[in-house]
Design brief:
single chain, Arc Repressor Mutant, subunit A, 5-stranded mixed sheet, 45% helix, extended
Length: 531
């Protein structure tokens, strides 16, 4: 059979993701910080996008030309399109009524445009705002502020050299604290350079991370010089700083208290045995009796294993929720998006009218149209993102209402498919929405992923239980156990099965280890030592 070349025509169907759909998917999975950075980048690149600050002369023309907020239902009740009205809302929100928990009309009407839709069409709103978030206002205007400064003495110096911010207490970071001590300890340039390099290797807990051999190689100096400088730095305040291990950190603090004797050093060299509560072996190694060992362990517990945590951290680990829920006085829940996290964008049509002149070149018109389409699509994608997050969060609250009312023991088993089927979306969309998104509730702040847990069968054939609820029950049983009657994993299995929870021993052991609870042997040693 001869091999010949030929041309064939084939027709097939395939799913193609348009750039607009890719942008919408990308925005959906971003968290607060990533979304803010992405929007700032778009504001720098697109001249037709403006951030609605709520006030300021720069936004006056844009607000006058585009005084419309995109929301769930842009049409008014009387059938008008509402294009000439300005709506002032308090944020994206919805009510979950106790009497009607299977409808969600606020966000079901908003859908993403298809690839056949023209972004340049004017049949949809091109301005979106998360709402005018309530802020501090000055009822008296600038005159009231000036009167306050005159009456309170804020302006009696006649200039702006003194301000209220300058009277606030300045908190010192760990790095600044160590650098201040280094400048007083030595004035030799080479020693300061080595010390500065070592200080930069200290983490937030106060431990030295990295290898000092690498420091000697980078600075082209002897290893003995680096070790000598490190030894001096380890005597800085607070005691135990710049240690390379927990034993070294605790040893430095004991040395500062003049309590580092050979017995204590032997205890520090065998901290792994102390973690296992192997007291008989520790007594033999330290050559002390029971009473002395108890006093030594009490001294160890009084030390600070993280000496650097008392200083201000350079980063901010505060979690800002994306969704806020609170109970309604008449029953049910009020769910709303956190307006402080939503970008406030609008398309500056007044500037677009200025640059969109008829005598513009073909290249200029192409650039203008591209920027206009990109701005419209971004506003629409942000609108859809807010709608989708609110819809997913609302359905999660409906599914897990027992948790919010009665506690973790009523947390139901839930998977992504349950939410996706309820709101008629794909599981991948729900997964993107719940990643790195947080909800503030009366029971605390939880990541949306927290409410998705595995299912544990019941022995009586009733409704399945959530794995998180079972873990909470295991922890409650261990916390309430008597020191004279420690519960083994087998005993925990018997108790749980008596309560109707069908669970295996290995599952109990896995949940106990996930909760960082020691085994029954270690707990018996620990509680015997406390007695």
């Amino acid at each position: 059979m001869a091999l010949t070349a030929r041309l064939d025509i084939r027709q097939a169907q395939g799913l193609v993701m348009t750039p607009q759909l890719q942008q919408a998917i990308k925005l959906l999975q971003l968290n607060n910080q990533e979304l803010a950075a992405y929007v700032d980048g778009e504001l720098e690149q697109n001249p037709f996008l403006d951030k609605d600050e709520g006030d300021g002369p720069a936004m006056a023309d844009a607000v006058a030309a585009d005084n419309l907020l995109i929301h769930d239902n842009p049409s008014s009740a009387d059938g008008s399109d509402g294009s000439a009205s300005v709506e002032d809302t308090s944020g994206w929100e919805t009510d979950i009524d106790a009497s009607d928990r299977d409808t969600f009309d606020d966000t079901s009407s908003v859908t993403m445009p298809t690839e056949n839709d023209d972004p340049g069409d004017s049949d949809y709103d091109n301005n979106w705002s998360s709402a005018d978030a309530p802020g501090l206002t000055d009822p008296g205007g600038a005159s009231s502020l000036s009167n306050w400064r005159e009456n309170s003495g804020g302006g009696q110096f006649g200039d702006d050299e003194f301000s209220l911010e300058q009277t606030l207490e300045a908190r010192t970071t760990l790095r600044d604290h160590l650098l201040a001590q280094l400048s007083l300890d030595t004035d030799h340039p080479a020693e300061r350079l080595i010390g500065l390099h070592l200080i930069e290797m200290v983490d937030d807990s106060g431990y030295l991370v990295g290898d000092i051999d690498t420091v000697a190689s980078q600075l082209n100096c002897q290893l003995s010089e680096v070790e000598a400088i490190l030894n001096r730095l380890q005597h800085f305040d607070p005691p135990g700083i710049m240690a390379r291990s927990l034993a070294e950190c605790l040893g430095a603090q004991l040395r500062d208290k003049n309590r580092l004797d050979p017995a204590m050093q032997a205890l520090l060299d065998n901290l792994d045995l102390l973690a296992k509560r192997d007291l008989p072996t520790i007594r033999k190694l330290c050559e002390v009796d029971q009473d002395d060992l108890v006093e030594m362990i009490a001294e160890i517990r009084a030390l600070n294993p993280k000496p650097g945590e008392g200083f201000m951290r350079d980063d901010n680990d505060v979690i800002t929720p994306d969704v806020i829920m609170r109970p309604r006085p008449d029953g049910g829940w009020l769910v709303e998006l956190n307006a402080d996290n939503l970008p406030r964008l609008l398309v500056n049509n007044s500037y677009l009218a200025e640059v969109n002149v008829k005598n513009a070149s073909k290249e200029d018109r192409g650039y203008i149209n591209q920027c206009q389409q990109s701005a419209n699509w971004l506003v629409k994608a942000l609108n859809q993102r807010a709608t989708t997050i609110l819809k997913v969060a609302t359905e999660i609250i409906r599914q897990q209402e027992g948790f919010f009312l009665y506690g973790i023991q009523y947390l139901k088993p839930l998977v992504l498919r349950d939410i996706a089927e309820a709101i008629e979306m794909h599981e991948s969309t729900v997964s993107r929405v719940t990643s790195n998104k947080f909800m503030a509730s009366p029971r605390g702040i939880f990541e949306l992923k927290y409410f998705f847990t595995a299912s544990i069968a019941t022995a009586d054939g009733g409704a399945n239980l959530s794995a998180e609820a079972v873990r909470a029950r295991i922890k409650a049983l261990i916390d309430a156990e008597s020191p004279k009657k420690i519960l083994s994993d087998d005993k925990l299995v018997d108790i749980l099965r008596a309560e109707g929870i069908d669970i295996a021993r290995r599952t109990v052991a896995k949940y106990r280890e996930a909760l960082r609870l020691p085994s029954s042997v270690q707990r018996r040693r620990e509680k015997a030592m406390s007695l």
